[in-house]
Design goal:
This protein has 599 residues and is an alpha/beta fold. It is globular. The longest helix has 16 residues. The chain is built from 14 helices and 20 strands. The chain binds alpha-D-glucopyranose (GLC) and calcium ion.
Amino acid sequence: MKKIGSILVLLSSALCGTGRPMAAQQAAPAVEASRAAKSTSWWKNAVIYEIYPRSFQDSNGDGIGDLNGIASRLDYLQELGVDAIWLTPIYPSPQVDFGYDISDYAAIDLQYGTLDDFSRLVAAAKRRNIGIIMDLVLNHTSDQDPWFKESSSSRTNPRAGWYMWRDPKIVDGHRQPPNNWVSDFGGSAWQWDPARQQYYYHEFYVQQPDLNWNNPQVRKAMYDVARLWIGRGVVGFRLDAITSLFEDPLDRDEPYIPGPDGQPRIDAYGDKEVENIYTDNLPEEHGVLRELRQATDAAGGHRVVLIGETYLNSIDDLRRMYGANNDELQLPMDMQVGFINKFDVALFRRRINEAETGLDGGQPLFVFDNHDNPRWDRYQTGAAGAPQSAYGPHHDDIGRVIAAVLFASHDTALMYYGDEIGMATTPPTRKQDVRDPIGIRGWPREKGRDGERTPMQWNAGPDAGFSSAGVKTWLPIPESYKTVNVAAEERDPDSMLHWYRRLIALKKNDSALHEGEEIMLNTADGHVLSWLRKAANGEAVIVACNFTGQPQTVSFDLSAQGVGGTGLKTLLMTPGAREPQSIASVRLGPYGVYIGQIR
Ligand code: GLC
Ligand code: CA
């Protein structure tokens, strides 16, 4: 798979967060009552919260989350401190890919609500200084979209050239797909269409035909979609599969990836694995991004942010997504930090430093979790890499480390609903329970993405407060809801929820943690990741994260960084930890975190 980091982490189902360390914690400054009015760069150092609408809050008792449900939880999101919400697709859709197969880009799917509900949500969020970011799927539409229906009806209709149509290759008198390109979701990426007597290309499901981005009418139609939603009040777009817009004009075969025996590797779907050199990250995409940026800047008065789903392998590729003249994406996702997927201090240090120094001043967007990958509990593997139960002994400690990297770094932070209460990935255990089609096709090697899409756990009541009592929810509610839920964590000052709130408050209100430059410290240390945040006003803060299950003691010398003072004022630390007296000796428990201001 190219876009979705396919991380095979086997998680045995387990419950409860008992045995967590309990202790007093430092109080962080309260979130300011009102935040600065949204400027053209409001998204810099902001906190963006991804909501999977099916799973956040159901308001009408059909077991599926909806817009009115989200609106009813805005106070919670405001208290958490989020600046914007990214909604995964809520447009009308046959829901083959749960919304990523759009059949009408101008409307709202009835199961999520109406356009009026949407307008009310935008207005209510705005009153709380929260912006709404829509998901924009440019690479493909649903096969039920009228555009595709028309395009597939003949070779001469007005939209005949809107999708990727190709003649078959004839081998020994038999029809074959034009080349060996495979779908990310299994099987050939080419589907035969009897009406046109041609194949069409689909990077994802058969029901998601790829648009032809060489066609100027396609471009114009999609820029119009962006303008339409800007007019409806959205403050940004998350651009789905944005590195997939173009394919090799010569339709060349992709190279196979050899396994240990020299033969092509076989993936979870039984396909030979190919390297996507002709279907991913082609240079033509930059022309589209510049045009789109011009359109959104003009329609949104330069306040609309473009976020990219950019699974890229190098900092150079990531830098290109900002545009040579900062005229493409403001926030391409940096998947190179959050998806390291193991506590490798040296690698984290290198990648974070690359983001700080290698993006030509572009704002990094860090992310650890989304609706396509196992949640952050995937970082919890045993010493030999053996998976542990989701709520293993260090579950909360690990969550605190990850949250510290996310919120105390010099970045815009993108988080996923449920992260803040420590919801663990809960994949289905039987094939007949799987809802995500890739899990049905790939079972048991690929269990699909249901495990990270389970309903939000609000309280210990029926349906975890997500739906009405006794309703069958679209995905089952994990058993953990009895102890891992918002209401219980509100009451526990040492909970994950309070840790997130304090970190986010620091990111907003402490000048060093908000916008200070980031300098890696103790760069030879293989156990503790430490860094300095230094604000223009001279404020300096150190952050130290123990990446191991053993206690560690670190010592800092900041003279080379031009920071005077060796005293510390604690801003936040792991519950139960002892406050250090000076930077000469900071003790950290297993996976302990310390954040302190230099005095
Ligand atoms: C993106 C989405 C994923 C979807 C795919 C196809 O990777 O995040 O959920 O299945 O694109 O649209
Ligand atoms: Ca509903």
